[in-house]
Amino acid sequence: MKKESDLVKLGEILHQERYQKRLKEIQIDRIKLDFIENKNEIHEIKRAKKMENAHLFQLLYYLYYMKTNFDLILQGVLNYPLLRKKIQIELTLDKEKELQDILLDIKRIIEKDVPPEPIWKNYCKSCAYGDLCWS
Ligand code: SF4
């Protein structure tokens, strides 16, 4: 479904235009890194800053995944090319604990026989999964 979203397409074009020289979409098991720089920096490219918390935890998950599966301690960088902004992300112990709680919640939801009812938020309007939740 994600492939059909115009916003996802816009994100892909942004990736291509701004980061063509170093774009490396690196697939490692279940995660896909936009690119790696300076040997230890995982970079994610984002279109806007609207869902910054989701962006943050996506990247924290990548850092956590690399740490727990490969024993690699890496840094993260969120890139917002339209805002000309970069944000450094670190997997601190507090963030790691928060992430583990989120992963437990996800596991609990997955194990339910019936998914919980979706709760409408403003960002549902532009979410690539809108059809799945609201049709
Ligand atoms: S449309 Fe669904 S998946 Fe997307 S933000 Fe809303 S509830 Fe979440």
Total helical segments? 4
Which distinct ligands sit in these coordinates?
Answer: iron/sulfur cluster
pLDDT averaged over residues: 85
| Helix and strand sequence | HEEEEHEEHH
What kind of oligomer do you see?
Answer: single chain
> Proportion of β residues?
15-25%
Taking strands numbered 1, 2, ... along the chain, how are they ordered across the largest sheet? 3-4-5-6
| Percentage of residues assigned to helices | 40-55%
Distance between the termini: 13 Å
Overall domain count:
1
Structural class, please?
Answer: alpha+beta
Name the poorly predicted regions: none
Task: Report Rg.
Answer: 16 Å
Show the helix and strand layout:
Layout: H1 6-19, E1 26-28, E2 31-33, E3 35-37, E4 41-45, H2 52-70, E5 75-80, E6 85-89, H3 93-110, H4 130-134
Parallel strand pairs: 4-5
Antiparallel strand pairs: 1-2, 3-4, 5-6
The structure holds iron/sulfur cluster.
Describe the structure.
This protein is an alpha+beta fold. It has one domain. 41% of the residues lie in helices and 19% in strands. The protein is built from 4 helices and 6 strands, in the order αββββαββαα. It has helices at residues 6-19, 52-70, 93-110, 130-134, and strands at residues 26-28, 31-33, 35-37, 41-45, 75-80, 85-89. It has a 4-stranded mixed beta sheet with strand order 3-4-5-6. Strand 3 (35-37) and strand 4 (41-45) form a beta hairpin. The longest helix has 19 residues, at 52-70. The protein is globular, with a radius of gyration of 16 Å. The model has no long low-confidence stretch (mean pLDDT 85). Iron/sulfur cluster (SF4) binds next to helix 4.
